[in-house]
Design goal:
about 270 residues; single chain; about 0% strand; 2 domains; Serine Threonine Protein Phosphatase 5, Tetratricopeptide repeat; 15 helices; mainly alpha
Length: about 270
């Protein structure tokens, strides 16, 4: 969970640095604003929090400040504090798409409130219909709710806007796996890996698809690459299981050989004893 928090924080930091750069408010002229964001980017959330709170005393209506305080609270593993700060950002600016995105993520991944997350992500699409990530986020929530058809439709919309969106391809491939549409899943995983060879989710999905296609050598190769990257026991277990399937005829031949050898030896002993 913490790794997931850090990932979403990194994404939002990138969005917000670019967003803030074009803002002409008085906050942009305050050196402390840049300093506080640098603290956060450098992994010093305690110092960042103190400076953001100091800035809020002077700029209490700046939505970006409240959002960054929310991101900082996530870094400090305080999701409820993050929600409070993000909602304050939305009070100041209800059209703040980044704040709604982060709130939707917390509702989904931390609080487990899928419907609340869907509501936030749908609002983000209304605000930023050109943003591929908005459709992908909504699809992730719909998938957790079991609305697989709707999720695929939104992933298709994301890929229309951003054809090289590897994460959307991996997510869609995972849904095809759930629907037992293995050919479609394999296509998406292979395409995702062409874009991002380091996508472990796509590589594991491809291994599953290859196993279903009885390409056991290919499946083992994919899983072998995964085990070289990560000590995940699941990968090792799956690799071994496919190895048993792949070489079952060898094990069967060996077993038959031992069985026949035993029968031959027994008959020979019986004949020798009269």
């Amino acid at each position: 969970m913490v790794r997931g928090w850090l990932a979403v924080v990194a994404v939002l930091l990138g969005i917000q640095f670019s967003f803030a750069a074009g803002n002409s408010s008085r906050l942009q002229q305050d050196q402390r604003w840049e300093e506080a964001r640098k603290y956060l980017a450098d992994g010093k959330p305690g110092e960042a929090k103190a400076l953001f709170e100091e800035l809020l005393k002077q700029y209490p209506t700046e939505a970006d400040l409240h959002l960054f305080l929310g991101i900082t609270q996530l870094r400090l593993r305080n999701p409820e504090g993050a929600v409070s700060a993000i909602k304050r950002a939305l009070d100041e600016n209800p059209s703040h798409a980044d704040a709604r995105t982060l709130l939707g993520w917390i509702e989904l991944e931390v609080r487990g409130d899928i419907d609340a997350a869907i509501k936030q992500y749908q609002k983000v699409i209304e605000l930023r219909p050109e943003l591929a990530e908005a459709y992908s986020n909504l699809a992730a929530a719909q998938r957790k709710k079991g609305e697989l058809g709707e999720a695929i439709e939104n992933l298709n919309e994301a890929l229309k806007r951003k054809p090289n969106f590897a994460a959307a391809l991996t997510t869609r491939g995972g849904i095809f796996v759930e629907q037992n549409k293995w050919a479609e899943a394999r296509r998406d995983f292979e395409q995702a890996l062409k874009i991002n060879p380091a996508d472990d989710g796509a590589l594991y999905g491809l291994a599953q698809a290859l196993r279903e296609a009885r390409d056991y050598a290919g499946a083992q190769k994919a899983l072998g690459e995964l085990t070289s990257r990560s000590p995940n026991f699941v990968y090792w277990l799956e690799w071994g299981r496919i190895g048993l399937i792949r070489y079952w005829w060898v094990w069967l031949s060996v077993a038959i050989g031992f069985f026949l050898k035993g029968r031959f030896t027994q008959k020979a002993r019986t004949a020798a004893n009269g």
